[in-house]
Amino acid sequence: MSETKHTPGPWQKKRNISSVAVLDNSGGLVARLPATEWDIEKQDDNARLIAAAPELLEVLRYIEGVALANEPRDLPTIAAKARAAIDKATGETE
């Protein structure tokens, strides 16, 4: 597994009047998406997907490791991690 060179997760999205921000665990800015009236929902969706990036990367690395080790007993764990990352990316847990 390679070393993480990005800002460590988890990340979260936060909306204000003029933009949607993605913040790291300490409140540091990871990304800012300017918001306009016509694309507020789209910007929320984009910010949600960006905020889920660390979890998505983590679950992909986990899946890769299990696949290489060929350990099917971990399938429930894989499914749970994948579902959590999908929920965060799609907003199903908000």
Structural commentary:
The two termini are 31 Å apart. The mean pLDDT is 79. The longest helix is centred in the middle third of the chain and has 17 residues, at 53-69. Helix 2 (53-69) runs antiparallel to helix 3 (75-90). The protein has helices spanning 40-51, 53-69, 75-90; strands at residues 12-15, 19-23, 29-34. The chain is built from 3 helices and 3 strands; from the N terminus they run E-E-E-H-H-H. Strands 1-2-3 form a 3-stranded antiparallel β-sheet, covered by helices on one side. It is of the alpha+beta class and 94 residues long.
What does the main sheet amount to? Answer: 3 strands, antiparallel
Counting H and I runs of at least 4 residues, what is the number of helices?
Answer: 3
Termini separation: 31 Å
List the uncertain runs: none
- The geometry reads as elongated
Pattern of helices and strands: EEEHHH
Helix content: 40-55%
Mean pLDDT score? 79
Structural class: alpha+beta
Strand count:
3
Give the radius of gyration.
15 Å
Estimated share of beta-strand residues: 15-25%
Strand order of the largest sheet: 1-2-3
